[in-house]
Amino acid sequence: MDISCLYFGNKALWMLVSICLIRREGSTKQATTPNIIRVQDYFHVKKGMSLIMAAELDEMTQYDWFAHARSYETKGEDKKALEAYEESLKLDPKYAKAWFYKAKLHYRLGQKELAKESAMRTIEIKPDWEKHVKKYMPDI
Length: 140
Hints:
Layout: E1 2-3, E2 5-8, E3 21-22, H1 29-42, E4 50-53, H2 62-74, H3 78-91, H4 96-108, H5 112-125, H6 130-136
Antiparallel strand pairs: 1-3, 2-4
């Protein structure tokens, strides 16, 4: 099964080679995780861009769901973004990055209690991220 990540923006198929992931037949989800992490940590989706990921729903990893959440969020589809963060966290409840971005989204939507809960989970997993939580969500 192939997982293809394509960037469409002002430049056509920007750095396609660097953002394509290939999952070989018979491989496990875990086998592709390092590549997925690298792409998602360094490839930030901006407004007006689309991240298209082709993967079977039952084969999606927490990183795939996180990428979908970020894409939905940049397109203003907040409900879908929250659902995708939830899916990511179902697969990996200790995925601090998903908790952090979920907290930021709740905060932006004015859902302070939900933002606080997600932020606390972030800090439980990654105590050194407290400074980031305070920077982006100062009053929770």
